[in-house]
């Protein structure tokens, strides 16, 4: 199906004249800035943050470009992936008219953003082995379906979605296919970023919150065609990424080797935890994981969750989520944390 961005956009967004900041209008070199009503004296800090930051974060995008292998103009930066998700709803979905498809069990912010923006959510359950129900998705699509969200590796299950199925969706759907790759650094599958030149309706979400260890600075990424990135930039607040975050991100992006070593160690630890846990009598199944967490199906998820909390270990009880009955989600910790987890689980087994 042919993709037409102008038909997909809300009319008011298509015609929107974005706010033009002082830094947008000015190009070149200057020594005196009297344009933006900033405090010219500085900041009450060791470093001055009295000037507005680069509204398009070009230094960070240029650095990311070398790491990700895509041009800066194909990158949007947001306050976490959540900002990119919200902008997609606001730009492409008419409140009370349009709908999007999500594939539960999956990341909860798609539903929250849909509800905030008064957009109907069509939920098509994954299959029992947590893959796409392609026939049901096809039946759910109508003329007002604007987006399909695919989380791969999926949260909370941890498995990757079959690449061929995602490609089939992108190739045959006239709206946007949003592939959320928050956990892609831990996956055996390759990113969909390299497919951007082939698919004009593809949006790929990633984050610095997981493998990069920067959850505290809230920096998410969206990769898409230049046309779609221009839409993001029209809708976002003028200075959506603050100067301190941009500086910290640039510093962190110089440490790729450290991040890669953490990824390798996390995967080693994940396999160790799985090998230990699968032997426990209350563990029914551990879903194969391509992420930095595992979903464990147990005989008593709530009891296990409470026991771990009582012993100072916080996990995520997912047992009330459809297709995740009896399951808890456990993040892979440091080697020391993982040993403590396993010993506590063994003590629970003995107590039972």
UniProtKB/TrEMBL annotation:
What InterPro entries does this protein's entry cite?
Aminotrans_II_pyridoxalP_BS, Aminotransferase_I/II_large, HisP_aminotrans, PyrdxlP-dep_Trfase, PyrdxlP-dep_Trfase_major, PyrdxlP-dep_Trfase_small
Q: Which reaction does it catalyse?
A: L-histidinol phosphate + 2-oxoglutarate = 3-(imidazol-4-yl)-2-oxopropyl phosphate + L-glutamate
* N6-(pyridoxal phosphate)lysine sites (modified residues): 210
Task: Cite the Aminotransferase class I/classII large domain residue spans from the record.
Answer: 46-339
GO BP annotations listed: L-histidine biosynthetic process
What this protein needs as a cofactor is: pyridoxal 5'-phosphate
Q: Which Pfam families match?
A: Aminotran_1_2 (PF00155)
Metabolic or biological pathway, per its Swiss-Prot or TrEMBL entry: Amino-acid biosynthesis; L-histidine biosynthesis; L-histidine from 5-phospho-alpha-D-ribose 1-diphosphate: step 7/9; Lipid metabolism
> Which leading EC class covers this enzyme?
transferase
Key words of the record: Amino-acid biosynthesis, Aminotransferase, Histidine biosynthesis, Pyridoxal phosphate, Transferase
| EC code | 2.6.1.9
Q: Which residues cross the membrane?
A: none
Q: Name one GO molecular function term.
A: histidinol-phosphate transaminase activity
PANTHER family membership: HISTIDINOL-PHOSPHATE AMINOTRANSFERASE, HISTIDINOL-PHOSPHATE AMINOTRANSFERASE-RELATED
Q: How does it assemble?
A: Homodimer.
Family, similarity comment: Belongs to the class-II pyridoxal-phosphate-dependent aminotransferase family. Histidinol-phosphate aminotransferase subfamily.
* NCBIfam families in alphabetical order: hisC
User: What is this protein identified as?
Assistant: Histidinol-phosphate aminotransferase
Say which species the protein is native to: Arcticibacter pallidicorallinus
């Amino acid at each position: 199906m042919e993709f037409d961005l102008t038909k997909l956009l809300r009319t008011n967004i298509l015609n929107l004249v974005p706010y033009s900041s002082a830094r947008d209008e000015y190009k070149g070199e200057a020594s005196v800035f009297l344009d933006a009503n900033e405090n010219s004296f500085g900041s009450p800090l060791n470093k001055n943050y009295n000037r507005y930051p680069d509204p398009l974060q070009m230094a960070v995008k240029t650095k990311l470009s070398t790491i990700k292998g895509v041009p800066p103009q194909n990158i949007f930066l947001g306050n976490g992936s959540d900002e990119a998700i919200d902008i997609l709803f606001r730009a492409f979905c008419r409140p009370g008219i349009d709908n999007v498809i999500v594939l539960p069990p999956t990341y909860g912010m798609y539903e929250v953003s849909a509800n905030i923006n008064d957009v109907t959510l069509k939920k098509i359950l994954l299959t029992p082995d947590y893959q796409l129900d392609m026939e049901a998705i096809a039946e759910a699509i109508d003329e007002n379906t604007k987006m399909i969200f695919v989380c791969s590796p999926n949260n909370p299950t941890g498995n990757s979605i079959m690449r061929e199925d995602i490609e089939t969706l992108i190739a045959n759907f006239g709206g946007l296919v949003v592939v959320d790759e928050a956990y892609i650094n831990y996956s055996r599958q390759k990113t969909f970023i390299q497919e951007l030149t082939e698919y004009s309706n593809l949006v790929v979400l990633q984050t610095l919150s997981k493998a990069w260890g920067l959850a505290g600075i809230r920096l998410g990424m969206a990769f898409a065609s230049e046309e779609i990135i221009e839409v993001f930039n029209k809708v976002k607040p003028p200075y959506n990424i603050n100067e301190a975050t941009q500086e910290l991100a640039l510093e962190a992006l110089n440490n790729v080797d450290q991040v890669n070593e953490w990824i390798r160690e996390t995967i080693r630890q994940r396999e160790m935890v799985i090998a230990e846990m699968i032997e426990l009598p209350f563990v029914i199944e551990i879903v194969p994981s391509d992420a930095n967490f595992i979903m464990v199906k147990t005989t008593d998820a709530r009891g296990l969750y409470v026991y771990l909390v009582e012993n100072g270990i916080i996990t995520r009880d997912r047992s009330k989520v459809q297709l995740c009955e009896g399951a808890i989600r456990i993040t892979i910790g440091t080697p020391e944390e993982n040993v403590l987890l396993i010993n506590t689980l063994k003590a629970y087994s003995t107590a039972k």
